[in-house]
Design goal:
Length: 202
């Protein structure tokens, strides 16, 4: 492949990625207003202002579109979390901020996620075990906080990535209960952190 062809290919890839991001921003607004279950691909295409064929070209199925939507939301969450914790020296504070941001993010996106997640209890397990796991950066962030925390006080496990996965699963438990039984995600993040750490932490 010539240099000229390689450059053209890279430009095409960048354009395609930018197009996907713009569409996913519009799809996010739509899903979070209308929900996921009812609309068909034709409805979604109309709502975001593109043809059905163009939408299918980017996302071969509605499920593929939804996984892309979730991946897009995770990437945004990861960037926001990194910004929030950039100047925070206390790892415990970063973990509490993670819980706060996670609860507020899910609360704002309930309409979009409740049907797929309630309908498939393993939804996030599948998401986290995909070849290109969009949540990998978040698990690395959590593992780093637990490594920093362990320098201050001993934890039950020295496997910080394992602790990160257990911590994430425990916070998801609160969210899944809220999705299934209603109410609000009103628990204070500090209290949730203490409860979880009593089980998996020190």
């Amino acid at each position: 492949m010539s240099t000229h062809t390689t450059v053209k290919h890279k430009i095409r890839q960048k354009v395609e990625e930018a197009k996907k991001e713009i569409i996913l921003d519009a799809v996010s607004d739509y899903f979070e207003t209308v929900g996921f279950s009812e609309p068909k691909m034709q409805d979604i295409a109309k709502a975001v202002g593109i043809s059905v064929g163009a939408l299918y070209k980017l996302f071969p199925s509605k499920d593929a579109l939804f996984f892309a939507y979730v991946g897009h939301q995770i990437e945004q969450f990861s960037r926001k979390l990194a910004d929030m914790c950039e100047d925070v020296k206390d790892p415990q504070k970063c973990l509490v901020l993670y819980i706060q941001l996670k609860f507020s993010t899910f609360a704002s996106k309930r309409k979009a996620i409740e049907d797929p997640v309630i309908g498939d209890p393993l939804f996030f397990v599948k998401m986290n075990t995909r070849k290109e796991n969009p949540a990998a950066a978040i698990f690395e962030f959590l593992a780093e906080q637990f490594e920093r925390l362990a320098r201050k006080k001993p934890l039950k496990s020295s496997n910080h990535m394992k602790t990160a996965y257990l911590f994430n699963a425990a916070t998801m438990g609160y969210i899944e209960y809220w999705l299934n039984f209603g109410g609000g995600l009103e628990e204070k993040a500090e209290e949730v952190f203490d409860r979880i750490m009593n089980g998996i932490g020190a």
